[in-house]
Amino acid sequence: MFGHSLRGAVIGIAEELLHAAIKYGPGNVPAPWPGNGGPAVDREAYKGLYPGSKLDERYCTYFAPMSFAFGLDELLEGSGVDLWVDTLACLPIMRGNRVCGAEVENKSGRTAIRARCTIDASGDADLAARAGAPCSERGSPPSFLYQCSSLRQATEAAQRNTAAGLVSWKNGGAAGEFDQGYSGELPSQTGCGGKGVSAWIMESRRVARVHLAAEQAGVGRENVYPAALPTMHQIRMTRQIVGVESIRDEAMNRRDEHSVGMIADCRKTGAVWEVPYGCLIPQKIENLLVVGRCADAGPYAWQVSRLIPGVAMMGEVAGVSATLALAKNTSPARLDVKDVQQVLEREKGFLLHV
To answer: Residues 229-254: what's their mean pLDDT?
Structure first.
């Protein structure tokens, strides 16, 4: 996996996570960071490992997802958060149109967690939709991106005296960025229905198996095989709220007086969006913030806002907003955005405008 960032665009916890991503695995934060100029990475070390990447154009850091998990664990342990793993948020607890927490379920059974402010970071706007917030959906055809290891890669890694190239990414179906490459019969799925998700996953795996079997037929099963499979479906954009405001395509590189942060397009330079506070606030529902890929954005801006740096940034904004709402005994929707902006700029070091 790899991460891109434009220094000066995405600030805050996203950068903290960048360092956590490589603490227990491969990858380096570029030496000139956060300055300008200088090589992004040792290009010779990565030569041939990641065809098609734009190493010559921008700062780029590679990381192993499982190593990133260790770094995240450490951050959570140090934060004092009350962490519940293997727990599903099932239903919002409602009082009129006000969200007052959520029903969750794990091995202990169904439990009600009451809260003065709730943040939906499900990626699919699950709590928001079940609370009755207006939402929109977008589907994707089957896609499967996974990691493989091979004798060739191991031999080349040993010759370079590095483990950086022990695995490579394989794909099946529409594993490309813009849903191209699938020619099967399964319709696109939104990821918002159980049977649809199951069918999508099984078809994605089937396509990947066909591609893998063809490669194994040439070199042998012992010489190329899967090393890590995704732990969830890979539908990139599923459901998002209809927010009070939205991150719109035409707002690229334009000032927004309600901006609470910026996101950059990792696919090209010079494309930055200011994130209006209202894109985190669902219409018709009180006391709920929605962050990440289910915040209001699009059409193309959804492709940008769903990426990790922007998702992390919005999560930090939501945390600040929820804290302010509690302190002022109000809801996030009723906060003065200037109060949120002040904390983000003065205490978090955010840059809010292009």
So the answer is: 95
Cβ atoms of 303 and 40 within 8 Å: the answer is no
Q: Would you say 344 and 314 are in contact if contact means Cβ atoms under 8 Å apart?
A: no
Indicate if 244 and 164 belong to the same structural domain: no
- d(C-alpha 263, C-alpha 210), whole Å: 37
Domains in the chain, number: 3
pLDDT, the chain, mean:
88
Measured in degrees and rounded to the nearest 5, phi and psi for residue 158 equal: -65, -40
Instruction: Please tell me the predicted confidence (pLDDT) of residue 111.
Output: 97
Query: CATH number for the domain including 275?
Result: 3.50.50
List pLDDT tens digits, range 311-334. 999 999 999 999 999 999 999 999
- Residue 150 and residue 225 share a domain: yes
Q: Write the burial class of residue 273 (CB in 10 Å: 0-12 exposed, 13-18 middle, 19+ buried).
A: buried
Answer yes or no: are the C-beta atoms of 21 and 74 closer than 8 Å.
no
Please write the tens of the pLDDT for every residue from 46-64: 455 444 555 445 566 778 8
**Better-predicted residue by pLDDT, 172 or 217:** 217
- CB pairs under 8 A, 24+ apart, for 206-214? 207/142, 207/144, 207/172, 207/173, 207/182, 208/144, 208/146, 208/170, 208/171, 208/172, 208/173, 209/172, 210/172, 211/170, 211/171, 211/172, 212/148, 212/170, 212/172
pTM, to two decimals: 0.88
